[in-house]
Amino acid sequence: MSIIAPSILAADFGNLKSEAERVVAAGADWIHVDVMDGHFVPPITFGPIAVEALRRATRVPLDVHLMVESPQRHFQQFVEAGADRLTVQVEACPDLLGTIREIRNFGKAVGVAVNPETPLERVEAFLPEIDLLLVMTVNPGWGGQPFIRSVLPKIAEAKKLIDRSSRQILLQVDGGINAATAAECRAQGAGVFVCGTSIFRTEDYARAIHAIRGSASS
Questions:
Q1: Is 174 a catalytic residue?
Q2: Domain at 147, CATH number
Q3: Which of 19, 84, 102, 144 is least enclosed by beta carbons within 10 angstroms?
Q4: What is the pLDDT of residues 160-173, one digit of tens each?
Q5: Structural domain harbouring 140
Q6: Is 163 one of the annotated active-site residues of the chain?
Q7: Would 149 be classed as within a structural domain?
Q8: Catalytic residue among 29, 34, 63, 131
Q9: Distance set, CA 3 to CA 9, 50, 213 (Å)
Q10: What is the pLDDT of residues 43-98, one digit of tens each?
């Protein structure tokens, strides 16, 4: 089954509550929250206050992706704000195992993300400790970037590593995901699809989600 996780980064910030309600009513399974600190990546986006507001707006899982330096400094704030899952960038975590276990101590699901140029060897040894592996299909930072097709073999390799781990680890993709690219990623084994502009820049969110889900499930 495919999970559709619209990225609220692409929504209308002036109407964040209604955008969250609207996209959930349209069929979103999760809401993906891109947290950027202006250091690990250039933009500055959401903080715990925004997550808290989203938590009040909806009960679907909040999938919080921390694209920040020293992410462990912020775990407690995002947990208290209502995050259901915390995903960290392997590139930002010198002690990845310690970081993973700290999230686990908060009772939350744990994700690890790898950038397009980062080899999967950086995360392979930690698969027994995580719930989700995110393969970035754009370089993290700005929304609306084009899908990097050369990452497709990496998604396939990630799926092989997950299968060999004998654990129920979700394989997520994020960046340039629409109906066409979701189908390509699904063919390589992805199951969770983060979609930003392909949903929030359309007039009919339900139609966009239906198209992505259909292509990602075929």
A1: yes
A2: 3.20.20.70
A3: 144
A4: 999 999 899 999 99
A5: 11-217
A6: no
A7: yes
A8: 34
A9: 18, 23, 8
A10: 999 999 999 999 999 999 999 999 999 999 999 999 999 999 999 999 999 999 99
